[in-house]
Amino acid sequence: MTDSAQRPAGAEVQSDSARAGHVRYPARAPLLDADGLLRGFELHLRQLPVDAGDEPDIRKATDAAAAHLLDALGASDVRTALSGHPGYLNLSRPLLFSDAIARLAPDRFFLEISPDLAVDSELIARLVTLHARRYRFVIDDLRKPDEAFAKLLPYAYAIKIDPAHFDPDMLQRLAKALKSAGKLLIALNIETHEAFEQAKALHFDLFQGYFFARGCKQSGRRVNAPRQALLNLLRLLSSDPSVAQLEAELKLNPVLVMHLMRLANSGEASIGRKVATLRDAINATGTNRIARWTQLLLYADGRKVPLEHDPLVQLAATRARFMELASARLAHANRKVVDGAFLTGVFSLVDAVFGDTLENTLEALTLASHIRAAILRREGQLGTLLGAIEALERGDWDGLDRASAALAPLDSCELAQIAITAAAWASTADQSKENEGLERIEE
């Protein structure tokens, strides 16, 4: 439990530990490549307030705030939530000039620079110094290729562009010129499959947005996924099956066996020795956890890519785990409430799998009415929790504050902490170093 959760009622909110908690747990947003696989995360940092005072005091407070912000990125859950992918950080000028930036490993983070910063000799000198230390820079949200952009370009590894902000002909010329200069191009705010295809045609390298989580019958993304086998397994699990019945059903789909063996041998489920048989895996994991992981596997890509690289699996798993952990800390929580919260998170994205409208898909799944209401209309406590995790996905701190106001005793700091804990769980739940070779098991 965080420091703010331990404060007695009526205590002041602006303690150092509470304020540090705002940034210890940043929000993350995915970046995908042209094949739709995860290639990084932008980490949205909530800026710490700096108290007014004399200039030396302001500078000292700013340096302390920067240290808190950058220390946050070394937290264990944050590192795990990146799942081996690089983190992209949008830095303010004070952060860029802070000595605390040395706490960031150059091979793990890209430093984003806004062209709106005052591009003066002092800034360029700082970029030269950091570039010599092998830091890589990304020009963020380029709006026009002006003089400031030209000064930053020699130090840029990549350029982020929102295609909607440019005339198509100019965008094509700009993209061609930047690619010729050897720059990586990142398309911003890609929210539809159509926008993704258009940016890909312009030879953008990476894509930031949630187009992969939108229903689209034409996307062709999961045509070969064994969804029927998963649904059959879920139906069996709902009837309280014996281990023998569950073993027989699982054997019909070796891919499910592969994922279950990995799950059973993961750190959280391990029983102190390597699980070698399917029956051992069932006993070690338990039917409840098998049911939950089966729900998440509905999102798995038919290309059988590792789940830690599949953005939709990661998003669904993070939402579900967040809903589960957060609901358990609210008043009147019980197993039924927690299970309902997990289901709400899982199926909030189900239209991206089946390609139909969300309303029709939820109706076919015959979910409880309060879960459908939470997903479709954000009603009730589950709907508020779902709104909170969506705000964190966007880095919408004001939206998070509004959601937290209705989720006492949870506050924004704790919700952000829970989200990163959930992301760390999603990034590791299907990994096990002891299971090399299991990928040979195919349908």
UniProtKB/TrEMBL annotation:
Domain HDOD positions: 223-413
PROSITE patterns: HDOD
Signal peptide extent: none
Pfam families linked to this entry: HDOD
Listed Gene3D superfamilies: EAL domain, Hypothetical protein af1432
Listed name of the protein: Diguanylate phosphodiesterase
